[in-house]
Protein 1
Amino acid sequence: MTLIVQKFGGSSVADAESIRRVAKRIVETRKAGNDVVVAVSAMGDTTDELLDLAHQVTPLPAPRELDMLLSSGERISMALLAMAIKGMGYEARSYTGSQAGMITDATHGAAKIVDVSPVRLREALHEGAIVIVAGFQGFNRDTRDITTLGRGGSDTTAVALAAALGADLCEIYTDVDGIFTSDPRAVKRARQLAHISSEEMLELAASGAKVLHIRAVEYARRHGVTLRVRSSFNNSPGTVVYDPARLPEGAEVEESVIAGVAIDLSQAKITVVGVPDIPGVAAKIFKIVAGTDANVDMIVQNVSVAATGRTDISFTLPKTDGEKTLSALGAAKDDIGFESLQYDDQIGKLSVVGAAMRSSTGVSARLFEALFDAGINIEMITTSEIRISVITRADSVNQAALAVHTAFELDAEEDAVVHAGTGR
Amino acid sequence: MTLIVQKFGGSSVADAESIRRVAKRIVETRKAGNDVVVAVSAMGDTTDELLDLAHQVTPLPAPRELDMLLSSGERISMALLAMAIKGMGYEARSYTGSQAGMITDATHGAAKIVDVSPVRLREALHEGAIVIVAGFQGFNRDTRDITTLGRGGSDTTAVALAAALGADLCEIYTDVDGIFTSDPRAVKRARQLAHISSEEMLELAASGAKVLHIRAVEYARRHGVTLRVRSSFNNSPGTVVYDPARLPEGAEVEESVIAGVAIDLSQAKITVVGVPDIPGVAAKIFKIVAGTDANVDMIVQNVSVAATGRTDISFTLPKTDGEKTLSALGAAKDDIGFESLQYDDQIGKLSVVGAAMRSSTGVSARLFEALFDAGINIEMITTSEIRISVITRADSVNQAALAVHTAFELDAEEDAVVHAGTGR
């Protein structure tokens, strides 16, 4: 029997009616002859509402208690989903993270899965039940406390269950039709991909594509789990994220050099101005930055101005890490010996991603030419084996994406249909 | 060190502000040098809202999933309460029913506590933490599933924790000031009792007094737990429910023959008309009634009418059990051979309770005289060792209570202050 893991996000189970619709879809998968395990998020805005309550009670909620609080959200949605399925005449049982054997480290709010021991789920599947598991949550063996996985947690739960149970497929249901060549809100002619390799998906997710969380893609890639991203609002087949080593039979891989163009407006740039151009200074700066847990993305060191013996070092990081990083660097001003700090949160990042870049020449030339023709100024550049990213002004990144999308012949013949709620 | 268990109901933790107020009260108990364990209900109307959601999803929610769903309510309130206390600088940890070792049978929705194994709570107390436990919920060892205790569950959780941990006192915080000689909404001159014996409390609770659930009182009585019922909205000392064998030092026991007058408007009367007056017929009727799990209270068999050889049998039961009992009896009409069924939901029950009845004579005479003087017609009578109950018309039971309250010299000199929310 085929085993399929399905994940439904909060917008797919926002109210009683959506829960019944999702239950029907799960039952259809079961009727088609599959074993089904479901990972489910909290209903709609439940998690945000609970967070809000916590902050009404105390300004800095204790992490252990916050996890206890937030984990109740999935408990509600999973129980409702299981009873909806049972109401349709199919056996279903819901399990919390700890009941499902989702063992994590003890980092409340951002726990890492260290082991999955789905004994009870195997028993339930063996007895013919549809299994519903709370996404986003786990359990630490040493403290015996409940943990939550943080951002992207429910996707990761689904992938981890698929890996541990040896599932044939992990379907991520969301409110968009699949993975597109670019964000359809910015690039109207974005085309849905039928397939994308996991390494390309990883680079796209890391570059700002929001449909799948990078952590789930990494987990899937490491454990060879095949993902299918699809909409819970229609029957579109969605996009398969495949491991190139295990290409699904009959899969038509896209012909383009570039799989997609990603846009990211969540980054800011810090420039450390007038740094003494002597060995070890850059190391000193990034040691301080690392101490704040800020997630540095791109780094550029300008050519030193001979007359002053000083240079500028710029790097990008998530805007949410900006304040703490500025204050840590500010406190080390005398130690590092720089002149000033500049903070710029009006930047945009555009990335083109494609596995075929490895064997294709001229990709960067084509990219820069397209940007030049569109009059877009490039401020920073980084490349990986299958990705080129550039920083532009925030207000020109959409225009840049349009130009690049056309230049790499990714445009569809018609505008993409953007569904309500497409924003996650 | 003194160990105090405190229970806070849903109306005491209805929003963030109430949770902070309750947290402050718990911290004050701690500051006074006590170890504190708290059992908490779900916030305000959470349980009803979750039940409503369940019924929106499916008409007959599966009991296992309903328990999974409802148990999330206390998880929310307990985590918020623990973080509020931590926010005030005191160590606090919340525990679910299963983490607290609340072991129950497998009856979803009305589980019985079979064992309490509070290993983690003892550890936490030993480490100086204030312990917060989810009321109303437990865990079955065989099915490894979460259960809920049903009505009166959170009070019972508190009492069971007090018994298992050998607490010195179990305080039940509620929205009334304590136990009164009668319901202050019906009897304005009702007086708050400083003390009441557990057997009297048990009879009052069984007779319709709603402040404490009979199940919690029984558990406390069986395990020798001293209860204090008090308001979470003021500092009134409340009412101590004591085991007469362990009367608290300096306790002033009330002088009255009668501890209280209870009113119950939740009952209905079924009369089986024209029953053949032959041996075994009553047994047949009550076997059928027992089969519906209806909770029969009073039974009256009229004197047989010689001419017909037939008699009437009347009994009272909760209105909520009325429909199923009528239909079970109706289906057995030919088998039993009765003529018709009458259903009367316009009855009221008045009970006077007092341990001193055992040694006082004339209590029933005084009761009946008071009712006669007030022009109240008595329809049925039952007595226990320390209680006399009568059935009257529903619309005269309040007037009856006033008359009896005065006749037994229970009236206070002033009207009782009824606080907002007094209705549970």
Protein 2
Amino acid sequence: MDDRKLLASIRTLIGEAETADDCSMFDLGDGKILVASTDMLHETTDFPKGMTEFEMGWMSVAVTLSDIASTGAAPSQVLVAVGLDSPERFYPFMEGAVSCAETFGAKVAGGDIDSHKELTAVTTAFGIVDKSVYCRRSGALAGDFVCVTGIPGRAQAALDGHDEFRQFLLTPNPQVFEGQKIAQAGASSMMDVSDGVVISLYDIADASSVGIILDGTSFPLFEESGYAKTCFLYGGGDFGLLFTASGDVLSRLDIDYSVIGRVVEGDSVILDGKILPRKGYAHVWGDA
Amino acid sequence: MDDRKLLASIRTLIGEAETADDCSMFDLGDGKILVASTDMLHETTDFPKGMTEFEMGWMSVAVTLSDIASTGAAPSQVLVAVGLDSPERFYPFMEGAVSCAETFGAKVAGGDIDSHKELTAVTTAFGIVDKSVYCRRSGALAGDFVCVTGIPGRAQAALDGHDEFRQFLLTPNPQVFEGQKIAQAGASSMMDVSDGVVISLYDIADASSVGIILDGTSFPLFEESGYAKTCFLYGGGDFGLLFTASGDVLSRLDIDYSVIGRVVEGDSVILDGKILPRKGYAHVWGDA
């Protein structure tokens, strides 16, 4: 059992639309959408060994701002709930949390403090976006270009011991400003790649009822190697944004990004003529 | 060290106003305030032994809706992040969460699923309230009446083994509809009593720079006894709302409540001529 299957099990309880995106949405009624996202991280599973409390606080906020970014919203406020095994860890953790929030234009506006056997953090962020540009996983159209920001794979490489990439793993930068520009330009779908590029492409493909054909010669890699390509496709922990857009939209977009494929009719993610496995980061209990 | 002291330690980081209430606030700019609150609960500390997963899910949402209620807001959406030791617990937990949310007019709109050694839940809720009636802990004025809804103390009594009150402990009803009526009538301050009546009165007194004199003959008790009075004053886990209001406001208020005292100039909570200890529920690490 993994978390994607578990989520599917409650579709009947909370609804199909409510489980389809990383952010919830609430129509504020004046052409604005309120988006919100929440993420749980805890020490043994989510924080690489040797991480400082500042870095844990930064990462906890960054993962949630990345979800907000993928809708095109400007993040407004962040709430931070922390379960602490020892109280001394709180201040440096919150320094990291506040620093990340402020770097990306948000404010830590509240939270909760609990005692816990293991340092556990849940950050919730919300932001506001114009309904006319609000992005979701659904909306990709056959013919659109498939694009990604940044160089996915470096966080995985850092996990594998490539210390030169540790900053991408430990104090990742959510693509908050890029997300707003992508949405304003008119992208047809968007999500972040934090669970891995391929599995995220499947999420877009599923939500949009399309297929995707990747062009392996155009991947932004941290080095020219099969290893870097594997990290790009299946590594987790990076904070790039995947999005789909027409050529017309791309001509209006003034950020750095790479075109890595095209949206097609179908239901698979294909590279070099082969259907890629639906594989990426997942929380697993027992046998998946 | 307890969580109130720990919270005070980060006032310089996130600001005085941001640590002063159970809810954060965000001005939506059209006479509306968005309020949000987040709460962490986990099995060993927060869920009484023998609780079902349904009850855990219900309680997790109820604590957060109670914070929203204390502002006078109508809760809109709830996000639920769950750390699970075993995946089978998820569905009944979410049934409880969804059931509580829907009972009080909110919708579970998203969340996060994680694996964890101990069942850990963080619920975040937001709601919208007219700026003109939005309630906080601050605002109580000398001369106001001090009021409470419900019969605080029953949750504590249930914890002590009074099984006839277990429903108040395990599936508490946040006073969501009462909170909206209290705010609309024009209460000067409000908060919930979930950490205990006396410590919550101190929170109102501190935030409002006032004192409070209680009338021990008017407490709504579950039985006439010193034990019930102690549960009323210091027990945690109940979901009544404390509020302060002028007689004029009370004359407009058509809900059940008890007047338990008056706001005065000063800085203490006083009963029978004695200053009450600042005592209630707190998370504690080591020596408090």
Protein 3
Amino acid sequence: MREFAWIEKLAGLFGRQAAGAPVGIGDDCAVLDGAAPTLVSIDTVVEGVHFDRGIMSPADIGWRALAVALSDLAACGADPRRSIQALVSLQWPPDWNDDAMAELAAGLRDCASAHGCAIVGGDTVSTPGPLALTLTVIGGAARPVLRRGARVGDAVVVTGPLGASGVGLAALRAGLADDDARACGAAYRRPRAQLADGARLAALASAMIDISDGLLQDLGHLCEASGVGADVDLDLAPIDEATRGAAAKLGLDPVAVAAGAGDDYQLLATVAPRDLAELRRTLPHATVIGATRPGAGVAATRAGRPYEPPQRGYEHGT
Amino acid sequence: MREFAWIEKLAGLFGRQAAGAPVGIGDDCAVLDGAAPTLVSIDTVVEGVHFDRGIMSPADIGWRALAVALSDLAACGADPRRSIQALVSLQWPPDWNDDAMAELAAGLRDCASAHGCAIVGGDTVSTPGPLALTLTVIGGAARPVLRRGARVGDAVVVTGPLGASGVGLAALRAGLADDDARACGAAYRRPRAQLADGARLAALASAMIDISDGLLQDLGHLCEASGVGADVDLDLAPIDEATRGAAAKLGLDPVAVAAGAGDDYQLLATVAPRDLAELRRTLPHATVIGATRPGAGVAATRAGRPYEPPQRGYEHGT
């Protein structure tokens, strides 16, 4: 069975909403009752599945694992002025030495500092298998924004450039190391969770998700949860110059990468038309790339024609 | 480097206490600030390290992983009347099929129900390595009880029988299946977190820990955190008839198993002498097995003579 089918099955088994948890399984975070809603999310990364030690330093691995988890808090509109905490569970393989562990821990610490997050607990276990890290992150929001909530006619908005991480991964694998490639490689190795943008969008967005698996796939999740469809004009997708430059050298189509490669950890939100003026004021760097419509599914166009990228995103078990 | 050395090192690196977390790394749970203190703990189990599919069904694996995590909440005195929530991250290996996943999930669900816990979120990823589960559990306590806090002259108390799980593991490995062995095997495969006892002890205990690694080793952790030593009379350690019976058939010394095998998930607490009468009233099944003293370290006796079991507990990386 594939990942998303399993999430559905488990949500059914465990109950989609539970006592003390106004939002349960299936969104970026679970929302727990309290004086103010508490957001909590868990994320595991495994060597050989999510990262490759050949192109990531131990510090990169630590940084990225935490940033990816924090991105789920951003996607729910966590307020960076409230405490943000993380717990880390490390599974270390037989060939993992103390220096590498110390570097990995330094990467975790640096990422935590950069995001105003405190690492408050954890667990370390040995494994005969690959290196793996599980991060649990906890934050708070006055008004959590979920995947559900988009209405027909809302604008589809992204918070920043797409494709840099996907092109960066290809550049790292190819050993391309000019300025453009290095910038893209850094986007892949050291992503940032968009906590500040997420908090600003929390006041405006009808629904939100982070772009982890791929733009079209993640928009599909948001649309499915909201019961709407969406049309996206990929010519509007923001792609920076370094990404275009490195993609050209690698023979990649940057728009295809932006549409399907994932790992950008920008936020994808839907915003009602009446709130677009306020969006432009508070998030001038946000870009409208499409709109929701009745029905289901996500349709993409380029130059006014239907377009299907080679992949829409990543799913485990496929 | 070994597990406990790493925990020390990571605690130093990440900061032992952080903003919004009155208790940080190194106790059974992290304690987060809020209207009432929030307890949170993370625990990973890995096939081939923490469990063996040869003697555990997938449902057992799921049950045990969650119970072990919930035991950390019990050890901090979590109040079962408050919400208790869990998030689960599953790493599934290539040979793991849908039936096994469904059984494992059912074991998680049954354990959650048995403990009044709601599973509110999670993550599933594929791995080329062994099956692994990470559980994050969240609870609340009016007054969290920590490993630190024991004073010289406190009684050392355990909440229930010891050694059943260690003997049960040996019985499962040996294929012994009479009534005694089955009872011990169930203690190993389906432990229970002592949430009710932990909540009662929260009003009385000066310090508390759960017995996961081994009685003497876990008491050592409590003593070290509290800056005291302790003497334990192992003749007083509660060991039930089934454990003695199965141990005899296996040629095991049940007292040695009770002292060092761990996995019992009973609670180990220190209680001031003035509170012992109240302890006997509210926890009549609790047993005093020793007392704290000045200095450091844990000394055990049997029949009045110093005794050192073959092992004091389990540590990863040793």
